[in-house]
Amino acid sequence: MAFDAGALREDFPILGRTLESGAPLVYLDSGATTQKPLAVLDAERDYYVTRNAAVHRGAHQLAGEATEAYEGARHAVARFIGAADDEVVFTKNTTEGINLVAYALGNAGRIGPGDRIVVTEMEHHANLVPWQQLAGRTGATLDWFGLTDEGRLDLTRTGELLDERTKVLALTHQSNVLGTLNPVRELADRAHAFGTLVVVDGAQSVPHRPVDVRELGADFLAFSGHKMLGPNGIGVLWGRAELLGALPPFLTGGSMIEIVEMDRTTFLPPPQRFEAGVPMAAQAVGLAAAIGYLERLGMSEVAAYEEKLTARALERLAEVPGVRVVGPADLTDRGSAVSFTVDGIHPHDVGQILDDRGVAVRVGHHCARPIVRRYGISATTRASFYVYNTLAEVDALVEGVRAAQQYFGG
Length: 410
Description:
The chain has 410 residues and is of the alpha/beta class. Helices cover 38% and strands 16% of the residues.
């Protein structure tokens, strides 16, 4: 059922802040990190107060309860994305999940000279730099899908980029700058015809819309808890069971071993194989609470509400002379990150005027520098919406942009 964003805001005390400028906080930076509802804060605190112990390491009752809570969180994640429990690996964040796959593929000898790794020009650095590094270590070639002027993938080279030489296709599900929702299933089906592995950055999609890994068609999917109402320091790597089972560990040490002798070691099966050391149990419990919160809202309802906010932003920004949206100008295959430039005003200056009015946005290249270079700009101002934002806050954004134009004489 539809939810009331105004009432929901009571679950997020920080949204009631008044800033030093005297302006009320308008938080439009959820693409960077989301605010946390009381249910998540309470769940994490309750774990520390009642069940804190080393997971998978003790035979006493407290350790058993901690382990049960941790594995319960894994089950919650698996349910949320349509996966099996043993396909869910806890990481620190999306970046670590992608690096885990890249290093493991290299260590397994799956990538070598003459092979090709394909990415896209709209990738966050977290889904670009690890593949650059893997190509450099192995002698593989890195190539990429370019972008159209409208902010979508240029698919004209698909036949050239996806062939028997291509071992990995790594792409974002939803761009953190452009908002573009990519045709992952279509590209995955093409890639799989050649045995290519498909690695998807889901950091901007999993928090905002229903994502079922079986329907998505990927082989690996990484996302972060802090971008979906959860704590910092917890992320997820999902991988097909048979693929995870064929990969060597990324980090080694305690909790991921089977037998250790002085001269050799054998390793546990996934997911434990990839979770060396004492895990982030409290953060996992907090992530499970965040998932429960989103499930109560309904992910289809979340996506529909964000679409209303995005439609309002695109419509109102289009009314402002000199404002250029960088990315799709309509709602077709589009998420709720809206990046834009203002003629004659640097994005940092736009951001400062907005901040003076209490409107928190992000400015810069958003850890995706190739995108801004593609469009001949140095940076953008980005507003990114979530379930606790309101149409009035969208209007406050646009009013702030107009104020910036007035201040700088635009």
